[in-house]
Give the backbone structure.
Amino acid sequence: MWLYFYPEKIEMQSVNSDVIVVLGTGGTIAGTSGRELDNVGYRAAQIGVEQLLHALPGLAGQALEAEQVAQVDSKDMGLEVWARLAHRLEHHLARAEVAAVVVTHGTDTLEETAWFLHRVLAPAKPVVMTAAMRPATALLSDGPQNMLDAMTVARTPDARGVMAVVGGTVFAPGDLRKVHTYRLDAFAFGDAGPLAVVEEGQVRRFREWPATEPLGVGRLPDDTTLWPRVALLVSHAGVDPIVVDALLARGVQGIVVAGTGNGTIAEALGQALHRASSAGVVVWRASRCAFGRVIGDGDFPSAGPLSAVQARIELMLQLMLS
Ligand code: SIN
């Protein structure tokens, strides 16, 4: 961990004493390619978070601390990193001199980590996640602007809660959806609309900051192998329910089904899930549609407005803490 002030404002009296902590976890925002015209053939999670901050203009006078919590391509994000990240966030957020924490992350599982942190921490200070679609070495990398926008939100006086800032848009954690493989504006915000936008260093907010009753970092078992096993299945044409029996045999405790449309489940898969439910496995219905909530009653409880991947986290937490 390290602390620095930008050299042009080194005299202490002009320095903003409210520290922003930046936690790095990897992702394309920290990715590099040997060729500057290559926006896909790069390696994620190569550059340290300190180096990312050094490359940023416009932070004169802002006290910053950087800490590398992980260095992963977020497709490999998992329980260990989530646990470490939650603990480091809890630590920094409890420090009186810390105003906010920015978390750099990959875009691919941003919506999952954002939901996890929202439910576990629901902090009274801002935790602003950011990411990039293009590596740091790209001709037009989106990382620096996204980092600056995240800093702008982090410095907003009344800001609170976990959110994500990408492409000039501020997303509430539950509304965040990665919907495009390549475009710079790869994220959508579902039915609710954006939480806010960042325009030329100004935040224009439309809704309340995200808040909920936190589940508490202290309630997460230290041994992540004890966290409940929750699987995610997709109901699709010609689905083979054999996978449910395989999961049952391996001791899965919960299953989220990304159902068709309004969370409907193919007959054969439904029968297998009823067998699992009778054996004590908790089954939830989400939808494989990008937008909308699962409405009305069905054979299994609805995951409501959560995406299927977020519902998997929610069920894991509920099983863990019930
Ligand atoms: C990742 O999610 O770590 C790689 C892809 C990205 O950040 O866009």
